Fold each of these.
Amino acid sequence: MFSAQTYTDRRQRLKKEVGQGLILLLGNDEVGMNYRDNTLRFRQDSTFLYFFGLDKPGLIAIIDTETDTEIIFGSEPTLDDIVWSGPQPALAELAARVGVAQVNSPNSVSQLLKTARDSGRTVHYLPPYRQANVCKLHEWTGVSLGQIKEKASEVLIRAVVGQRSVKSDEEILQLEQAVNITGEMHLAAMQNTREGMYEYEVVGHIQGAALSRGGDLAYPIIFSTNGQTLHNHFHGNVMESGCLTLGDFGAESAMHYAGDITRTFPVDKKFTSKQREIYDIVLEMEMQSIAALAPGVLYRDVHVAANRIMLDGLKQLGIVSGDVDEMTQLGVGGLFMPHGLGHSIGLDVHDMEDLGENYVGYRDGLERSTQLGLRSLRLAKELQAGNTLTVEPGIYFIPELIDKLRAEGQFTDFVNYQKLADYRDFGGVRIEDNCLVNNDGGRVLGTPIPKTINEIETVRSL
Ligand SMILES: [Mn+2]
């Protein structure tokens, strides 16, 4: 946990920016996996963590922007709780650690909010993503279930996004810690992969590398020889010689900051020449994109520039032909990279996506494209010093997508569909790092993780 002062300062700023009314922030509850008492891994809400720091289920907080009151609501541990779960500090003691003087029972939330609403005061809340919190908000605000999300406070969303988007030095240290654990997970994958093994045998090493360092998973592990499937969570393939394997996974630090790194490497000790050719294009896209990071740079432009590098490289391989600028404009790159170049990262792996992707990655006057690839770009707006984000270009050969575009006669002037037939079983390559934008430009977070062909082949040959 950070110091009480950190949380107090964050709430002071939030209060000032929201200006009027009450701010209601909901923590998360335990969720039953197959019955109530056998719960999924508890994960606190990230905004609650950001402003109130307490990593514990069943908490609710209210900030009165006008009277300067801050209250944390939660149940005091009962003797039963202590018998089953061990001694726990009193709520007032926990609250004091994050600079909050007042605590109360969750049963009093309803009345407090009713009194506020009756006197015409605004209750600001964020869009909930868990059904339990949807129900609570419905009960407390009187807003119908179907309207809970759209009635969330835009003023509060914008204030939270503005604050959480710029990371403090102590947050950057946390992110580096997450990336460093993530690096160990990737090394474990590179060191343990052998021809003939099942993917899940390596997945065990990957997850173990996070747990044994006090971390956990920031999101479900992608580790597959079918890297062309962007979010492939199946781990049951036998890894065969001649295949590439794509691993996209990351650790969450003890304070819940996320790492999100992707590496692609051969099941064999060395890349084939065909794999090298594609890999080197993706690496060039990645390194040039990282070099382009700076305050004021439109991240959408970095995405488009990466597409230009890709099309230029694919042209040299005879997979596409024609004018690269024209192809870039038309979005031909979407066939090979149907996702965006990256997204914000912080307490969430896709930071603040629960608040609405467009609040985080777009702004007024910068609308989302409808083009394949570009439409999936989660972060498009101007970068700011203190932003942390992923840079994750890829090239994929997705037979179903190729067949569909070919059947529709799309990009026939540029794409050599006949040549593409040679790549149908290639899979995909993605390379991803986590970066910080600073006044000098930008830098990769954490200790470097093997990335060039030489670096990867060295680890694979040990
Ligand atoms: Mn990512």
Note: The chain has a mean pLDDT of 97.
Amino acid sequence: MGISKTPYDVIIVGGGIVGLALALLLAKSNKRIAIVDKKGCVSDFKLAQYDVRVSAITPASVKLFRQLELWSEMVALRVSPFTQMEVWDGDGRGRIAFDASSVGENALGYIVENKLMLHVLWQRVLASAQIEVVTGVELERLQRHEDKAIIDLHAGDRILSAPLVIGADGAQSWLRQAANIAINARDYQHHALVCTVTTEKPHHQTARQAFMPQGPLAFLPLEESNVCSIVWSSAPGHIESLMQLSDAAFAVALAEAFQYQLGAILEVGPRATFPLTMRHVKQYVQPGLALVGDAAHTIHPLAGQGLNLGLADAALLAQLIMEDYAHKHDYVKYSTLRRYERARKADNMTMLAAMDGFKQLFGNDIPLLKWLRQRGLNVTDRLPFIKDLILQKAMGL
Ligand SMILES: Cc1cc2nc3c(=O)[nH]c(=O)nc-3n(C[C@H](O)[C@H](O)[C@H](O)COP(=O)(O)OP(=O)(O)OC[C@H]3O[C@@H](n4cnc5c(N)ncnc54)[C@H](O)[C@@H]3O)c2cc1C
């Protein structure tokens, strides 16, 4: 049997949250889209059990899900709004609090399980007549021609081709490497431990984060009033030692580190860890090729921005591509891709730099820095105008 060759208008490599959202945005045109993922497309989301991986998503990301008419489905399953946020310095002397009402919003953001988002996105993608799903395949080769990129699939009996290929294939992006795109990368020297916990006291829909010299510890409120998802970032050795503890010993260590802000920890779920690395590509685009989401940048989770930045990439790239299509261009122009690169690189760079600043400021015990950050938090807490500006940036408004 010969090799079959299927032409598309756009191929998206990677069916994570960012790639799927982008495919659905582009499916509003009359173009043929392929989404290629090395894994399968069925998420094993179960309502009976919280996913250990959750994301704090901003009102800007909610707007994107609304635009795709997916938000009400997510809400019907389970999303957890948070109306307040408290951040404090590890020893409790500096503290700042934010409230949604100060910026006229109902919520500062929402905690949503990653598997839930994937479940809702995949259902819609599978129902779309314009999107073809190619899953469970290993990509082998990227071949470039003047007018199109051709991707060879490992199976060897199929070639997908399109004038535009988009990499949404995560931090280790195959497409980024195949296109020889260089990245700046730096180990944050932190691993993140995530876990669902039941606390003695209710969370009152407040997201809380303690900045300790070893790293930040966040409690993100879930639907039940005393259940939170935690993200504990610290030195790899420290995280490894926390992973070795029994559930009971881990519950005590966690409550102590969090200064019993929510009382004792009554139950802990399975723990998972992730190494944290800052990555930022030097190029977001080449002719006929673009990168979005974690394929283009990864950031410390301390401000819960990685996915939000990825969704903002997808929103802008889709908008610019659709403008080209609306002008009856068959191909997406390189100048269009460069516009996307300029806008998103600047925005993402600002956030990456801000996270570095945070990590440096809170990540050490130099007395002057300690005094500055405690005073900084307390003074800022009394400046509503500055607080609102910080909030608006964090919410993507
Ligand atoms: C501990 C932790 C907490 C976080 N908390 C938040 C938060 O609160 N808020 C927030 O906004 N962000 C958060 N993030 C960041 C967020 O999880 C990521 O930015 C986001 O999931 C990236 O989505 P993506 O679709 O770009 O990539 P991914 O989710 O990595 O998806 C990539 C997809 O590509 C596929 N793929 C990979 N390689 C190939 C290949 N060779 N061929 C085909 N397919 C391939 C994969 O199977 C996968 O489906 C957090 C991250 C961590 C580690």
Note: The chain has a mean pLDDT of 89.
